[in-house]
Amino acid sequence: MWQAMLFLFLGLAGSAGPAHFGMRVLSHRQQLDRRLAFAPGTEDGGFLYSWWLMRFGQARLGDAALRQFGNLAGIMGWLTLIGVVGTAVCIAAKAGIENG
């Protein structure tokens, strides 16, 4: 059971993660090209920019392409987070079962 859950979460993170990062790059590039304002701390396109996209902050800027790229990045970011957390929980639970 734990192996199936582990592979499920690894697969989720492994497929949604690259999609999130790809859409994040497209969102950042679109925002730079259109000279749209960045939220404080998100100018570099790093972790805070990902978090901003996952909270759908790009919707307020009114650019259709940025909204599309950002929405996909946000959704894939949440799926990646679920996959990573699920993987960690499965590993911890399996270790707890074997040791206790």
Q: Number of DSSP helices?
A: 3
Q: How many extended strands?
A: 0
Task: Kindly report the average pLDDT value.
Answer: 94
Which geometry do the CA atoms define? elongated
Unreliable spans: none
Sheet with the most strands, sense and barrel status: none
Helix percentage range = over 70%
Q: First CA to last CA: what distance?
A: 17 Å
Strand content: under 5%
Number of domains: 1
Helix- and strand-based class? mainly alpha
Output the helix-strand order.
Answer: HHH
Q: Nearest-angstrom radius of gyration? A: 17 Å
Transmembrane segments: 75-97
Keywords: Membrane, Transmembrane, Transmembrane helix
Question: In a nutshell, what does this entry contain?
Answer:
With 100 residues, the chain is mainly alpha-helical. It has helices at 2-33, 47-54, 64-99. Helix content is 76%, strand content 0%.
How would you describe this structure to a colleague?
- By secondary structure, this protein is mainly α.
- The protein has one domain.
- The protein is built from 3 helices and no strands.
- It has helices at 2-33, 47-54, 64-99.
Question: Features of this protein?
Answer:
3 helices; mainly alpha; membrane; transmembrane helix; elongated
SSE diagram, text form:
Blueprint: H1 2-33, H2 47-54, H3 64-99
Helix pairs in contact: 1-3, 2-3
Transmembrane segments: 75-97
Keywords: Membrane, Transmembrane, Transmembrane helix
